[in-house]
């Protein structure tokens, strides 16, 4: 639910022009600094918050990784795509990516054939696609919202490795969603 809240707040602040790409960049830089420090020392408010929302294994390795990559993916979407597509792509990230995990873990039974390790469930992917589509629909027409959500949720399921590192889906989802929306808008 934290993922949904942060994503919706991000979209709202960008939409209202309170959060600019430059300010988002500064937040990311400060986030990396806080992550580095919180791995080494106990920062009272930051540590409390990370203990509350971060997965324990991630808390030890790279505190705040999820939210940092969510902000990086959002910043890249804002820089690469026109405003409406970028906002729609961030909505797919905020709603689709979050719901796919929550719904899949709660109701999922069928392993997604596109996921090699079998951790992602088909019901979650479908629910994420629907909610991502509905969120994107606020900013772009039906064909763009649909294809952006479908493409992003398929990309979310596939494990993408770069050398020995798996790319974070919070980075991949908005870029794939935005690219699909851009292409559909250009060619349909």
Report on this model:
With 188 residues, the protein is mainly α. It has helices at 2-15, 21-40, 44-53, 56-61, 65-80, 83-107, 122-136, 142-157, 169-187, and strands at 161-162, 165-166. It has one domain (2-187). It is built from 9 helices and 2 strands; from the N terminus they run ααααααααββα. 40% of the residues are buried.
- Overall mean confidence score, pLDDT: 88
The residue fraction in helices comes out at over 70%
* Amount of beta strand: under 5%
Number of helices: 9
Largest sheet: 2 strands, antiparallel
Order of helices and strands: HHHHHHHHEEH
Total number of strands:
2
Low-confidence stretches: none
The helix/strand class is mainly alpha
- Total discrete domains: 1
Note the overall shape.
Answer: globular
Measured between the Cα atoms of the first and last residue, the distance is 35 Å
Q: Which strand order do you get reading across the main beta sheet? A: 1-2
Radius of gyration: 16 Å
Tag the structure with descriptive keywords.
188 residues; mainly alpha; two-stranded antiparallel sheet; 2% strand; globular
Task: Please provide a brief summary of the model.
By secondary structure, this protein is an all-alpha fold.
């Amino acid at each position: 639910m934290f993922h949904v809240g942060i994503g919706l707040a991000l979209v709202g602040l960008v939409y209202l022009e309170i959060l600019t790409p430059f300010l988002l960049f500064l937040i990311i830089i400060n986030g990396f600094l806080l992550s580095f420090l919180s791995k080494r020392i106990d920062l009272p408010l930051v540590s409390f918050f990370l203990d509350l929302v971060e997965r324990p294994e991630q808390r030890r390795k790279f505190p705040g990784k999820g939210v940092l990559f969510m902000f990086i993916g959002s910043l890249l979407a804002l820089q690469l795509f026109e405003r409406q597509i970028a906002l729609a792509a961030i909505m797919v990230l905020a709603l689709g990516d979050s719901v796919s995990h929550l719904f899949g873990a709660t109701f999922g039974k069928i392993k997604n054939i596109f996921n090699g390790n079998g951790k992602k469930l088909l019901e979650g992917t479908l629910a994420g696609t629907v909610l991502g589509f509905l969120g994107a629909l606020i900013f772009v027409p039906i064909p763009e919202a649909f294809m952006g959500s479908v493409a992003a949720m398929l990309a979310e399921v596939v494990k993408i490795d770069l050398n020995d590192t798996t790319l974070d889906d919070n980075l991949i989802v908005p870029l794939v969603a935005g690219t699909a929306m851009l292409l559909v808008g250009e060619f349909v």
